[in-house]
Design the sequence.
């Protein structure tokens, strides 16, 4: 078994060398802030938001699923952009919660923003049990990163001042591990919202549970952009999912993981419209910065820069 693991590690190391993961900054502009009559430069610029997700930092993997070089680049790039907010949507570790201490202290604590950093947990952040989940939350909060486990904060920002609601919810799979971090009713201040509302949710499909609560933008990760993407921008897993759907029922269990990560493998990155509160809202799917085995191909790590401007 140890020989097999070493061979797999060598193969993955070679693949990562052949297909390195570089950081790409994607830029999106959304008109979700209330209209303003003040024509100052600050009012016209709106709010600059950085979204990062899926670090999968761990000590148990050789080669690592994310490198220190990439993490250094993330911090340098974020700070050069001078964002108003940094939003982190989970999977800080792959399995070992204690690894979060180095990730957060060495890199995430150095992410600068005007109004703070907010975070939610992903499904991998629950894999080390209750003590592990609590350790990750403690490490984040120790460095002034606000963790939202079915909670919200109303923040006043900008000039002229604008109120926005930042809502965050735990991963829906946490209940299978004995956690109660996925409570839709506690995630928002009310069903309707007169102010811009941003939802942080690791899993994109959580919007199905949220559609009775009005929000204007959902930030998610989880599916890594498909991770191995064909030249025409379709993930390989989309075709694997088609095979699963056509396969006889007795064989579909063979395809269960990782296909259950999303209900639609055509939607793995970028901006989308999804049902919400009788109409539609925006869902932004970030490709993430870490990886699963074996490697990323045609799917670079992403730092999403989202400009929120007045309607």
Sequence:
């Amino acid at each position: 078994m140890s020989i097999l693991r070493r061979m797999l590690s060598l193969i993955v190391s070679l693949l990562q060398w052949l297909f390195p993961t570089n950081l790409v900054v994607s830029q999106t502009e959304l008109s979700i802030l209330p209209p303003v009559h003040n024509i100052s430069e600050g009012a016209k610029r709106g709010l600059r938001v950085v979204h990062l997700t899926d670090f999968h930092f761990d000590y148990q993997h050789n080669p690592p699923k994310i490198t220190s070089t990439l993490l250094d680049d993330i911090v340098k790039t974020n700070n050069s952009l001078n964002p108003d907010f940094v939003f982190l949507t989970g999977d800080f570790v792959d399995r070992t919660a204690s690894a979060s201490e180095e990730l957060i202290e060495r890199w995430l604590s150095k992410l600068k923003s005007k109004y703070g950093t907010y975070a939610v947990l992903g499904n991998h952040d629950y894999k080390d049990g209750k003590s592990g989940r609590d350790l990750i939350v403690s490490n984040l909060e120790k460095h002034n990163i606000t963790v939202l486990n079915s909670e919200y904060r109303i923040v006043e920002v900008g000039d002229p001042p604008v109120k926005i609601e930042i809502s965050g919810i735990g991963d829906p799979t946490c209940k299978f591990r004995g956690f109660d971090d996925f409570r839709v009713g506690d995630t928002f201040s009310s069903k309707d919202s007169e102010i811009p509302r941003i939802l942080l949710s690791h899993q994109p499909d959580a919007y199905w549970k949220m559609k009775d609560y009005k929000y204007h933008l959902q930030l998610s990760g989880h599916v890594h952009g498909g991770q191995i993407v064909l030249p025409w921008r379709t993930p390989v897993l989309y075709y694997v999912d088609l095979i699963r759907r056509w396969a006889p029922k007795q064989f579909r269990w063979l395809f269960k993981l990782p296909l259950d990560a999303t209900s639609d493998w055509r939607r793995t990155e970028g901006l989308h419209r999804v049902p919400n509160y009788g109409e539609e809202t925006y869902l932004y799917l970030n490709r993430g910065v870490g990886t699963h085995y074996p490697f990323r191909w045609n799917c670079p790590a992403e730092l999403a820069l989202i400009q929120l401007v007045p309607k």
Summary: The CA atoms of residues 164 and 278 lie 21 Å apart.
